[in-house]
C-alpha cells in the first residue's frame, strides 16, 4: 500500500483526446466536496496537464520532505503531484519507456501524501509501460474508464477495460464524455459523437455508466483557466453529475471492504 493513502482509483482511457484529465480533476474535486481527503497523481509523464487545470503556476516546485521525498502541492483543497512540478514543461520529455516507468514509480513512492481517503491517478492514454508499472506496484481499488460515444473511442475504451480486468483491477464504471452538444445560442442539443456508446460498452462488460457529460465550452474554459467546473460552478448541473459519480465510486469501493485486490502480474 502507498503510505498515507487509503484508496487508489485509476482514471484511464484507451485513447487521448476524450477528456480524461478534465474528468479526473473534476471527479477528484467532487470527491473532496463530498467531504473526503483527496489527492491527484498526474501519471501522464509526456503530457502532464493537471498543473494547469489546478491553477498551479509554472515553475512552482514541491517542498522537500527529507531525503528523496517531497510534499505534494495543494490546490483547491486537494493534494497534487505531477511531472509538471518537477521539470520544465516547455521542454519535451524525450524518454524511452523504462525512464518513464521509473519517473512514475518515483512520484508514486517518494511523494509524502497526507492522510488521503482517495488518490486519483490520471493515467496516460493507452495500455503501455505506466499501466503495467501501476498494475505491478500498486494495489488499485478500481478504475474509471473515460470515453466519448464515438465508435473509434469505444474501441479503445474496450482495450482499457480488458487491461484492468487482466490485472484484477475492478472497473467501477464508464464515464461518457462529450455525450451531447448543447448550442450556447439556441439551446438545441445534438449527439455529434453518436449516442448510447457508453451504455453498450457497460452492458458488454457488465459494468455501469457512472455519468454522461455534455460537450460545452464552459467545461473546457474552466479547466484551461485553472478553475475546474466543480470549483467554478459548485451549484451547477455538471457539478451535480460529478458529485453523483464521486458518490458511486465511494459506494463501490466501500462495498469491496477495506482491502484492495491482490494484483499479480507475470512477466
Structure description:
The chain is of the alpha/beta class and 267 residues long. It has a single domain (10-255), classed as P-loop containing nucleotide triphosphate hydrolases (Rossmann fold, 3-Layer(aba) Sandwich), CATH 3.40.50.300. Helix content is 36%, strand content 21%. The chain contains nine helices and nine strands. Strands 1, 2, 3, 4, 5, 6, 7, 8 and 9 form a nine-stranded mixed beta sheet that branches. Strand 7 (171-182) and strand 8 (189-190) form a beta hairpin. Helix 1 crosses helix 9 (237-255) and helix 3 packs parallel to helix 4 (129-137). The longest helix has 19 residues, at 237-255. Residues 258-267 have low confidence and may be disordered. Homodimer. ATP binds at residues 14-21. It comes from Halomonas rhizosphaerae. Keywords: ATP-binding, Hydrolase, Iron, Iron-sulfur, Metal-binding, Nucleotide-binding. InterPro entries: Mrp/NBP35_ATP-bd, NUBPL-like, P-loop_NTPase, YlxH/NBP35.
